[in-house]
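Tokens in:
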């Protein structure tokens, strides 16, 4: 497997990814505590409990934070790879599981920066 080059704006991308994960985590914790309402795409009549949706969302938010905090290893066996496709998938999952639109926008910005950097 070829060794990945670093992104030109990797520190800025890491800031967006970590902030997106933290904001998503706070949104889900506030919704779980009953302080705010839960905005999720998955309908409640589908059979999914809102608590289950939020717990899965909290796990996804923690994985997002780990993606931003990870250190590059030679073997490439990270939990979540630091790649632009990962940012897009995590943004979609945060929207699906109640992470909020602000967390999604931050991850989409990181996705666009990494994609442009990868294409140039």
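Residues out:
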């Amino acid at each position: 497997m070829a060794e990945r080059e670093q992104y030109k704006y990797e520190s800025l991308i890491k800031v967006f990814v970590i902030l997106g994960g933290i904001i998503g985590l706070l949104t889900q914790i506030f919704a779980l505590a009953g302080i705010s309402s839960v905005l999720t795409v998955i309908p409640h009549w589908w059979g999914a409990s809102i608590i289950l949706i939020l717990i899965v969302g909290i796990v996804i938010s923690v994985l997002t934070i780990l993606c931003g905090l990870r250190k590059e290893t030679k073997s490439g066996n990270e939990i979540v790879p630091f790649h632009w496709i990962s940012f897009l998938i995590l943004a979609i999952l945060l929207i699906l599981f109640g992470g909020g639109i602000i967390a999604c926008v931050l991850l989409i910005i990181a996705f666009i920066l990494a994609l442009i950097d990868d294409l140039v």
